[in-house]
Amino acid sequence: VLHDPRLSETGQRITGWHDTLVTLGEMIRAFAPKADSIANLRRRLDSIPESQRARYRDTAREVNEIAPLTSELRGRLIGLYNQIADWPGNLTTDQRTQLAYYRDFMARLEPRMGRVLGARIR
Predict the structure, then answer these.
(1) Residue 103 exposed, middle or buried by CB count within 10 Å (0-12, 13-18, 19+)
(2) Measured distance CA(48)–CA(121) in Å, rounded
């Protein structure tokens, strides 16, 4: 693959840009299926007959709290990926801050996601 002659970025910057996109892509691939599972679990809990809902009250509360967070984070990760993919250069300070925040937020959300995804719903 030849370098685009219209770009003045160095090979090192392009490599850093590529590595960031790979890292962000891996984060999305790891997180998106779990976010989808949370959304599916929320729909499943919503479809449980009223007479059986008390049994799943704690799980439903937790799912209702984290479902919007997982959906929002997935969208923001994808948005950041698309934003970075548009220009093969150094990340802006804002982009670096966002990436670090999303990585941290994802790590803090993972245990809660694991708990609700491990719940048995009949």
Answers:
(1) middle
(2) 9
Alpha carbons 116 and 114: distance in angstroms, whole number: 6
Q: What is the pLDDT of residues 33-82, one digit of tens each?
A: 999 999 999 999 999 998 888 999 999 999 999 999 999 999 999 999 99
Give the tokens for residue 13: 């910057």
pTM for the complete prediction? 0.84
Over its C-alpha atoms, the chain yields an Rg (Å, rounded) of 19
Q: Which two tokens stand for residue 89?
A: 């250069």
- To which residue do tokens 């708990």 refer? 115
Written as six digits, the tokens of 109 are 């959300």
Report how far residue 78's alpha carbon sits from residue 59's, in angstroms, rounded to the nearest whole number. 28
Q: Look up residue 2 and give its DSSP letter.
A: P
Record the tokens describing residue 91, joined without a space: 């990340």
Tokens for 31, please give them. 């997180």
Helix H, strand E, coil C: the string for 17-50 is HHHHHHHHHHHHHHHHHHHHHHHHHHHHHHCCCH
Two tokens, residue 81: 């990926």
From CA 121, how far away is CA 71, in angstroms rounded? 21
